[in-house]
Amino acid sequence: MLGGFCDTLVTFVIEAASSEGRAEPSEEPDTTFEDAADFNDWIDESHGSVSILEGIFQPSQILFNLDREQYDSARAVWELEA
User: Which residue in 2, 18, 23, 29 is deepest, having the highest Cβ count within 10 Å?
Assistant: First the structure.
């Protein structure tokens, strides 16, 4: 399961980086990545680091920066279950 997630995440990262458009700004600009440290740690521990070429990336930061809607949805579910 983790391997499939990583493959999907890497594919998403590559497609997002190569697309011409940029993601729309978040509708909640006052919410920062650091506001959800426990959630970010949970994502990173659950999925491990993502290695692309020479870079090592955290899944939580990738998700926050590239798909804020999915990040916020997952965070809301996580908060309900915590």
Answer: 23
Write down the pTM of the prediction.
Answer: 0.62
The answer as to whether 28 is a domain residue is: no
What is the per-residue pLDDT across 1-36, written as a single tens digit (0 to 9) for each? 555 555 666 666 666 656 555 555 545 556 789 999
Determine, yes or no, domain membership for 29: no
Using the predicted structure, report yes or no on whether residue 59 has a pLDDT greater than 60: yes
What is the C-alpha to C-alpha distance for residues 76 and 82, in angstroms, rounded to an integer?
10
Q: What's the CA gap between 41 and 18, in Å, rounded?
A: 28
- How many domains in the chain? 1
Answer yes or no: is 76 within a domain.
Answer: yes
Domain that holds residue 8: 2-18+35-81
